[in-house]
Here is the input.
Amino acid sequence: MTYLYNDPVQFADECIDGFVAANSTFVRKVHGGVVRASRTPTGQVAVVIGGGSGHYPAFAGLVGPGLAHGAAMGNLFASPSAQQIYRVAKAAAGGAGVLFTYGNYAGDVLNFDQAQARLIAEGIPCRTVVVTDDISSASEPESHKRRGVAGDLAVFRAAAYAAERGDDLNAVWTLANRANEHTRSFGVAFSGCTLPGASAPLFTVPEGRMAVGMGIHGEPGISEQDLPTAHGLAELLVEGLVHARPATLDSSAGARVGVILNGLGAVKYEELFVTYGSVSTLLTAQGMEIVDPEVGELVTSFQMAGVSLTLFWLDAELEEAWKSPAYTPAYRKGLVNRQDVDRDLITIVDVVEDAILPSSAASRASGVIVLDSIRAIKNMIDTNVEELGRLDSVAGDGDHGIGMQRGASAALLAAEDAAAHEAGAGSILSKAGDAWADRAGGTSGALWGLALNAVAAEVGDVAAPTATVLASGVTAALAAIARFGKAQLGDKTMVDVLSPVAIALTESAEHGLTARDSWKSAALIAAEAADATSQLLPKIGRARPHMEKSLGSPDPGAVSLALAIDAIAAVMNSQQKVSQ
Amino acid sequence: MTYLYNDPVQFADECIDGFVAANSTFVRKVHGGVVRASRTPTGQVAVVIGGGSGHYPAFAGLVGPGLAHGAAMGNLFASPSAQQIYRVAKAAAGGAGVLFTYGNYAGDVLNFDQAQARLIAEGIPCRTVVVTDDISSASEPESHKRRGVAGDLAVFRAAAYAAERGDDLNAVWTLANRANEHTRSFGVAFSGCTLPGASAPLFTVPEGRMAVGMGIHGEPGISEQDLPTAHGLAELLVEGLVHARPATLDSSAGARVGVILNGLGAVKYEELFVTYGSVSTLLTAQGMEIVDPEVGELVTSFQMAGVSLTLFWLDAELEEAWKSPAYTPAYRKGLVNRQDVDRDLITIVDVVEDAILPSSAASRASGVIVLDSIRAIKNMIDTNVEELGRLDSVAGDGDHGIGMQRGASAALLAAEDAAAHEAGAGSILSKAGDAWADRAGGTSGALWGLALNAVAAEVGDVAAPTATVLASGVTAALAAIARFGKAQLGDKTMVDVLSPVAIALTESAEHGLTARDSWKSAALIAAEAADATSQLLPKIGRARPHMEKSLGSPDPGAVSLALAIDAIAAVMNSQQKVSQ
Here is the structure.
């Protein structure tokens, strides 16, 4: 269990604050994570890692010379938002682009990909190496589908090594990618873990049993058996990995291996050393030469009991990377440069909060409607939060209502703050979107942040938005959602609602309708689309939707989107100042 | 619980082996522990630490530049033997003497003191700083009685800093001692811990409760309360320590403090960081300036759930020590010298096993009797193991029989090995004593090792031992036991048996009796003394002692010693070759 916390909701944020306080000579806090205390040298690729919290020292503990330039830190076991990742990357970037590298989990991929697109759109080159070392999570031919676990360290080290010797982004990507291809991990679990304030474990393993291949968030393993001896476990892990030797290695490679015996949290150092004694003997008997083994906690899963073994088949260049110096809060090795350690020589990162861009009076006037719309959406969600949760509990984990509520509340606060600082309509939307994605969590939070930012980019802070601008904004939002959510029309998602809305808005604008009128008709179309999707919403806006579990498995995201579009229509309708 | 182990009895040894395999570039294994891989420079004081296993990274993980030169590693939660400590110190010593520093626990004090006496007897200067930082274990006026916990790190760092800058032994002692005076810790526990293979926890804390001041081996705390929030705990710990500010500090000292927030095992990093956030704020509000805080696992108690907070009130010199570089398996900081890190530059320690000294034929002939005597003792213990355990269960933990059996069996193997390598009587006794102390564990194991070595020193490897030699050997053994066991005549311990035996042997020798005859009468005296002590042994040697719980609380060590003396008398009696 988790013993020490305050408000469970604040746990991850307080963890970052405490981590930064404890490591102020190593890192600086930025919105959404941490970066090295020292500015990335001009011309050096920045390596940005990240993922959910609860895996310390992954990820914040691995920021520093020889490892990452920055880490985006999400909530417990939840991906950081695209906005968080983007801002960490912006703070870390040194002019030669950014390499993203992180473990392969759907939420992380979604958010890192969004952040990458945004960086590229701003002219900052960005490439990604997703770590896929966990052999239990997919077969060798589908190794790209594997999850990333403690092999993260091998890939991060290779990326940092290439970046720090001055490689360009493509070369950094190439070495990190090769490190991933040369790395395989195999893990087991003996217990589940319980998050702060939770009354029950997130997942469990029966006492005296071992879940072979269980993931670090409790993802199902490949088998279960009685807990073996330490030596028996070493045999299992070594044998599994020897057979998982990457097919792409030529036969001469890999006589020398980096080794990580990683504890997941509740298995203590003494146990790891007893087990490592056998691992070392067994690998040596296989003819392998072990280089700089790591035995300890590198990628944990809170207080989960379990271990994983990682083999990193080395070639000459990867061995140099593996042996190179590093100096981070949780991983230090060899001798780094004095300017990386000596506080007086460090070039401190300047963390600048985003300034509010200048705006026109017309845009600020439209901003009032934007603000009212966001408030209306928040009120709508507050009213329907239980209903949305109930709807989500049919197919999902029932947190859609709560997540939307958290996102909308944060969005409203951010929008109010921006408006108070004389932001234009576009900036208000953008700040609201960022806050929404930041606080809502989950896929829908990320998609809402994306959608609002897409609209914001079209709206801007100069002119009052026309019907045409709204149409192109919604069209852009649709494209972003479809791309990052990997959803197509007919999948019964937000796309099914937004697609006819975008078409209708475009047609309305072409026919010269005002923004208010075109949005009003769009709201009806959205209701119909959501109805078609969920078969649940006969009359949006007139009565609270009658949501019944019995009618299949509607996407709650589509429903809440339609409700939101209707709420905006109501605001527009009541406004006298709608442009045109 | 402990998940990974093989034979629980081998756990600590296998842990050392695995640790050394994982850290072969940092440390070398010696008998009883580890030393730095690099030889201690000539003229540098060697800092030797140690204690029971189960506290990683204490103690082996703290061996390296900037910290210890060597660590003696005992069994789980059990002191290393004097022999282990002695040998680690011998391997670590660099010609300028040895500073012992370790946490204040009775078993550790007993064994380190013995090792210190032996080093000094060999001409190696040795001094000791016992760490006493745990404010819950005694009041400030009796602070010398306090236990040592995570404050170990502060004291070890100061000792290493002084040693490495070239201070002589007294100066190293002075700075380490001052560090101890400037260091206070306060801890809490939320759960017990379960050792490898144990069916029940060694100690427990009720669920949802917190044992304030509980020690790292489950020593009772000062109170119990409901588990607070992380912030509430931070308040408790900070307030406790602020009030425990050392009285000896002058008022100007200590505006700057080193801080250690130490996890005991089951409390994970994220929880520690959340708690540290509050600790940092609260200390700052007290006007303290935090210098290089450490948040993590520094002195653990296996998988016990708990934390401790340590304050190290700094003066200028202690701050330099605290901030100085270090490079060990588990503690690395700043930039050490290249020759401390670069494998090619390291001057490797030569680990030499003790050679068998040359011996005379006469001494080897006596060695046969020594060997037979040790075998007789072993057989006597095997026969009485349950009885001795039962006797111990009255006043102790019932493991006296098992401990004696382990010690005697190991002693016999070592003696046989020595005899097979042509050792003389003295060396056979010495090897037997070392093995006994090594394997028996507990206080009586240490005392037996001490006694056998004291006799061995008198017997030597040249002449056959006379009655006079035996008398002076036993007298020396008595003195050693009394001194290190801190027992006096009348305390009903081994001293009560050995004291009249030593007198009788001395008188017999003065009256010209043979060794055999003088020992024979000594055995009767021993039986009487043990009888007087335990009131349980009417006729040793003729019938198995009739041991009854009902007659009070005899010392099982006194009983087994008398039985052993009787067993030796029987061997001597049956020998034709007894010298004079």
Remarks:
- Chain B touches chain A through 64 residues (CB under 8 Å).
- Chain B is about 45% helix and 15% strand.
- The first helix of chain B runs from residue 11 to 22.
